[in-house]
Amino acid sequence: MNKKKTTMQTFDAIISGYGPTGATLANLLGTMGMRVAVIEREKSIFDKPRAITADHEATRAFQAAGLADEVMKGTCAHPGTDFVGVQGQVIKRFYPMPAPGPLGWEPTYMFYQPALEATLREGVERFSDVEVFLRHSLVEYRQSEHSVEVDMVDGEGHQKTLRGRYLLACDGARSVVRTQMGASIHDLDFDEWWVVVDAQLLDDIELPERCVQYCRPSRPGTYIVGPDKLRRWEIKVLPGESPESFNDPAHLDEVLSTFVDTRSVHVQRVAIYRFHAVVAEQWREGRVFLLGDAAHQMPPFMGQGLCAGVRDAYNLAWKLDVVSRGLADPALLDTYTAERRPHVQQVVATAKSFGLIIGELDVDAARLRDERLQAELTSGAAQTVRQSFIPGLSAGLLNLDDEGGLGAGAGQLFPQPWVSGPSQPRARLDDVTRGQFYLVCRDARLVKQVSSLFADSACLSTSEVVCLDCRRDSGDENEAVYCSEEGAFITHWLEQFDAVAVLVRPDGVAFGVARDSSELEGLIVNADQQMGSFTFLREATC
Question: Please, what sign has the CA dihedral across residues 176, 178, 181, 184?
Answer without folding.
Answer: negative
